[in-house]
Amino acid sequence: MIIGTGINAACICETSEIKKQQFPPDFPQYMIINSEISIMGSDFLQKTKYDKMLDSQSAIPGFQPFEKMVSGLYMGELVRLAIVDYVENCNLFNGKLPEGLEVPYSFTSILMSDIERYNERKRNSFSYMMFMCQIRLLTILFFNFCIVIVHIIPQIF
């Protein structure tokens, strides 16, 4: 699996197990199958309100739902949307949004990594909150990846 600014996964399959395609007898025994996993999930993934907000504001709403939920390009924006929501509705930071966070995509996945790196040296309330956001996102990533795999396998074989 590849997770960076985007997401994708491939697997090696025995061609004899692929029932939806007939191969000539001299065809290789194994094949690498690219799942294009990023485009899956609109019909079965559990989306948070932040996933829905990000998707509706994207250039192509509804396209690549899994990618928008877990990839590096979008993780920072999902956290930014959550921070804005908690500032406005739960009095996070005493109801005052830190300067710059009103700008979409201003909170990057790189910044999340920097906060975690800082967190290793010194814990404070903000870095701990960001660490917990990362744990939540990774849990969602793993859970959604498992759901996508369960839906991909029957499509291939």
Short description:
By secondary structure, this protein is mainly alpha-helical. It is built from five helices and four strands, in the order ββββααααα.
Describe the structure.
The protein has helices at residues 49-57, 65-70, 72-90, 109-121, 125-156; strands spanning 2-3, 7-8, 10-14, 30-34. It is mainly α. The protein has a single domain (39-156), classed as Hexokinase, domain 1, CATH 3.40.367.20. The strands form 2 sheets. It has a two-stranded antiparallel ribbon. β1 (2-3) and β2 (7-8) form a beta hairpin. α1 crosses α3 (72-90), α3 (72-90) packs across α4 (109-121) and α4 packs across α5 (125-156). The two termini are 19 Å apart. The relative contact order is 0.15. The model has no long low-confidence stretch (mean pLDDT 78).
Labels describing this entry:
Hexokinase, domain 1; mainly alpha; 5 helices; two-stranded antiparallel sheet; 4 strands; single chain
Task: Summarize the topology.
Elements: E1 2-3, E2 7-8, E3 10-14, E4 30-34, H1 49-57, H2 65-70, H3 72-90, H4 109-121, H5 125-156
Antiparallel strand pairs: 1-2, 3-4
Q: Please summarize the sheet with the most strands.
A: 2 strands, antiparallel
**CATH fold annotation:** Hexokinase, domain 1
- Give the C-alpha Rg: 19 Å
Number of domains: 1
By CATH, the architecture is named 3-Layer(aba) Sandwich
